[in-house]
Amino acid sequence: MKQLITIGVVCLARTTFDYKAAKEIYLKIQSDLEKIESVEWEIVSELLIEIHDAQKAAKFLQSKDIDGLVCISGTFALGHLILEINKIIKKPILLWGLEELPYDGGKIRLNSVCGINLNSSNLYKAGVKNFYAIIGNQIDTDWLDAIRILKAFSTKHIGIIGYRAKGFFNLDIDELDLYRELGVLIDHFELSEIFNFKVSDASIKERINQIKSIFDVSGISNGQLEKVASLTAKFNDFMNSNNLDGIAIRCWPEFAAEYGISPCAAMSILQSEYKILTCEGDILGALSMLAHKVIGGGTPFLADFSQVDLKEDYGLLWHCGVAACNLWDGLCKRSLDTYFAGGKGVTADFVMKSGEISMLRIDYAPGEYRLFLQKAKGIPMSKELKGTYVKVKFNQNIKNVLDKIIYNGIAHHISVVYGDFIKPLEIFAKIKGWKIVN
Length: 438
What we know:
By secondary structure, the chain is of the alpha/beta class. The chain has helices at residues 19-33, 51-63, 80-88, 112-125, 141-155, 175-182, 191-195, 201-214, 222-241, 254-259, 264-271, 283-294, 398-407, 423-432; strands at 5-12, 39-43, 68-73, 93-97, 131-135, 158-161, 186-189, 246-249, 276-278, 301-309, 314-319, 335-337, 347-351, 355-365, 368-379, 388-394, 413-418, 435-437.
């Protein structure tokens, strides 16, 4: 389900234009908006014409704690109106211009596009750049999805268990800077809190039966199977008891050395249940997956860009057995294996399904946040590797994609989701003033 958001709506007008026609269009828009999922609308039903109208509307919307503001230019209107509203409602703005109506006696009836021009110029020159503009008679649902991302970051509870993996300096973050930028506060937990977390025998037994129903477990011992089941139950209950919407886990070297297995297989299972878990302590990877999830991306997974074939022009998105098990291609045998960490790996092994793919990395470099965005197509391949993986063809040459990753210093983890989920993230970056690497 998409993130629930609250959106304010106003319509600006001026009586020197055809404000009565604008009101009719606005009434139709109000009816259409109510049909959109996971949005609570706070609509100022009357046209805003005078300055005091805007001031009154702003106070009303402030009391409703909206996440974003839709400002429709029903007609060209006073430049004061949007500025008076923004003075109180400091939220991202959708400037919405209507299509011009047929001329009436040689007059432009709405002049709505010019109204958008005036408002955008006033906002920009006032230092307000979190606006996005559209022209048409329907709202841009991609903008709504961008607001869902902003809302999720400021309200979801993210934790890190342990620290980032040894040597993975590029996954590090400045926690207070992240809070300033997105409103995200990271809670820290020790690995021992997971190792020592108590779960019932009944829940372990239930997880054992679940694992056997999903995977071929002939490659692991009964003791390893029980550890995977126990760890799955521990992660699940730990997240629930601490109200965590996502966790980044220092998955090596301590897990294999101290707990007895790596957490990959347990993470694969829980991600298929729509929980956000990332390996190697990757907090920005968790936020990337969360962004995909809250705009309807289903089951995101974190992957390494592990292989390129420059001659055949394809890449391999791979990770050591952690992707959600429900993303299996339905053809190969899903299995658990112990191919790394001295036989203590216990990873999920399967080929992932084919289809349209969107990729995202929310990334930080000194002084800037940026988004790495790419589209690709997952294509069939046989099960030749351990771990979880999908072979992909990009919309551009694989060398171009690799160069953009390398020469922009993008971290080596990418959130991947099936479907087209690029535009909302482009709008999100526009609102935040972040660079897009694509």
